Amino acid sequence: MRKISLFSISALVALSFTTPAHASGTVRAEVIPSDDQLTLAFPGKKGPANYEKAGVFEDVGGPRYRYVVNDRKRLSAEVGEGIYPNLEAMKDPQYLKVFKEGKLKGNHWRFVDTRTSALNFYKWATVAEEPGAKQFYTAMMFERLGMLEEAVKGLYAVAVHFPKSLGYTYFSTPWYMGPASLDRLEQIVRRHPKLKMSYTPGNIK
Description:
205 residues; alpha+beta; three-stranded antiparallel sheet; 7 strands; disordered N terminus
């Protein structure tokens, strides 16, 4: 069995290729499905990225946790476009096309709850925003497009690189991207047994 280990600030989160139990219920991606499609110009490799070979996890379980990227080129190639530290979305021909057409004009928060998730992906993958929030919403667009493996990779990247990332809700209350990404990741894995992944719960404090 191939196992991925995700080290958070205070816990170890593991994803394994097995067959998890099916989960029911309605999620946001089903309420606001996408009417468009996305084909990445720079997709990552099939399966999870090998974070252990591309960098170092420091102070795992401690208050000074961080993941240090030693081989950015390797990690970027493995995770693919739209997932940190890969920045190739800005070179994607489709991004350049919709940007030139003016379809990405406007505040990025207007590119969230619409049925144009491919367009939203390009907006969030290239916007100047707090990095954890940027990665979370990019991953959310992957999920709405049915690109579940990419969504898992994106949410995984939030917890690895930006576990203490802070955003704010519509009501100006704090929203922590790290825990939110783990919750979303768990839901995807449970609801989609065809991914053949299982989830070992963890937490970020």
